[in-house]
Specification:
By secondary structure, the chain is of the alpha/beta class. It contains 13 helices and 13 strands.
């Protein structure tokens, strides 16, 4: 069992009351003492964004860059949503704060979305609109866990999970879900641990692998968590982005899980920063208080316009068809030694390629590929600190032209090594 951080120490003693007048407090700080910087802020970087920054600087300097590093649709929000935003700007109701959990009309539309897609309708008071899914994860971690609690996360996995956990004083614990495990979580491994985790974080489709759980596998995870008192958090932000398969929601199998989703991926609205949570009953009150103090409310005009997003499936499904073509361009065009042991990407828009046949240092490989050929990718160490040096993540959310050009450049780079 591998932990990314040591268990945080719990506070056991009260802070003593000050014994000197406030005006004398500066005398208690020795001259030359360095100002405090928190240990919890010393987190690993989010490498995908670091690569994006470098690639953008090169692009600004005139270099032609093909962007495969960031998980962002190259398409804009549906036109119907853009029109709804413009219309909302003249409404007085969009000028101020909303309730912390969002405007009722959006929460009601999200509930209907679950009825339409999954055949289950959550109560609207369990639905919380958030500032993207990232804020939803922060609320989930703060509402469900205490400092020092251990959260199991399948690895490779999204780096912000573990980084945010560590920043909040939680302990992320890696559960291998790589090629040796058929890219799936192994519940038996956790059953063999001396101590069960307090929580389990899952994602289907997965970032970076694109692996999709079967319904039976998701149901088994939900039953396992409920039987053992392990809080489940299900990241479902790539729902809708699947190829020849479908995704069920954990909401179909348990009322104890925290469900997280957003408009960023399938709905092609990353910059709108509208996400949501479906909360279990016992976390509604605490989550609302955290939301009130953390961000007050999600942007009001964006919330109102977002209601229209759920009526744009035809346009959005056309993007999924394009992603499928992009995936096939990469899989059929890239050199076999570059894609031969890739994860079976049946969802999301990522190819997690095993590049060990050409490099054992994905960070250096990605750097040289960017500098030499202008192709920006994300090294696997962003998603797997232990084995990610053998992997590279390529996003195929861009245009077909970009994918074809990437194939030419990557193959040229590989053949020249």
């Amino acid at each position: 069992m591998t932990a990314y951080s040591t268990t945080a120490k719990r506070a056991t003693t009260a802070i003593p009351a000050p014994t000197a007048p406030l005006a004398l407090a500066p005398r208690l700080r020795p001259a030359g003492r360095a100002l405090k910087v928190s240990q919890r802020s010393q987190l690993p970087p989010f490498l995908a964004l670091d690569v994006l920054r470098t690639a953008s600087e090169l692009q600004a300097a005139g270099q032609d860059i093909v962007h495969l590093e960031i998980g962002q649709p190259s398409t804009s929000a549906p036109q119907q949503v853009n029109d709804a935003l413009v219309a909302s700007l003249s409404a007085t109701a969009t000028h101020g704060y909303t309730l912390a959990f969002g405007v009722p009309v959006l929460r009601e539309r999200i509930a209907r979305h679950y009825s339409d897609w999954y055949g289950v309708t959550p109560e609207t008071d369990r639905i919380a609109v958030t500032v993207g899914s990232s804020t939803a994860f922060a609320i989930a971690f703060m509402a469900a866990f205490d400092e020092g609690d251990r959260i199991a996360i399948p690895t490779p996995g999204y780096p912000a999970y573990r980084n945010l956990m560590m920043g909040l004083g939680l302990t992320p614990v890696a559960v291998r879900a790589g090629a040796e495990q058929n890219w799936k979580l192994n519940l038996a491994e956790m059953d063999s641990w001396d101590e069960l985790p307090d929580g389990l974080m899952i994602a289907s489709p997965s970032n970076p692998t694109g692996v999709v759980m079967d319904d039976s596998e998701l149901a088994e995870i939900c039953r396992w968590c409920d039987a053992r008192g392990v809080r489940l958090i299900s990241d479902e932000i790539y729902h809708g982005l699947t190829f020849g398969v479908r995704c069920d929601s954990a909401l179909n199998y348990t009322k104890n899980a925290i469900i997280v989703n957003s408009l960023s991926k399938y709905f092609s609205m990353t910059g709108w920063r509208i996400g949501w949570m479906i909360l279990p009953e016992d976390l509604i009150s605490s989550s609302e208080k955290i939301a009130q103090n953390l961000f007050i409310s999600a942007p009001t005009p964006n919330q109102i316009a977002a209601v229209s997003a759920f009526d744009c499936e035809a346009e959005l499904d056309s993007h999924v068809s394009r992603y499928a073509v992009n995936r096939d361009i990469l899989l059929s065009g890239l050199a076999p030694e570059f894609t031969g042991n890739s994860a079976p990407c049946r969802g999301a828009f990522y190819l997690y390629a095993d590049i060990s046949a050409v490099s054992e240092n994905s960070a250096e490989f990605a750097k040289q590929l960017l500098l030499s050929e202008g192709v920006a990718t994300t090294p696997g160490i962003d998603f797997d600190p232990d084995q990610g040096h053998r992997y590279l993540r390529l996003s195929f959310a861009g245009s077909q032209q970009d994918m074809s050009e990437a194939v030419i450049r990557i193959n040229r780079f590989v053949s020249g090594r």
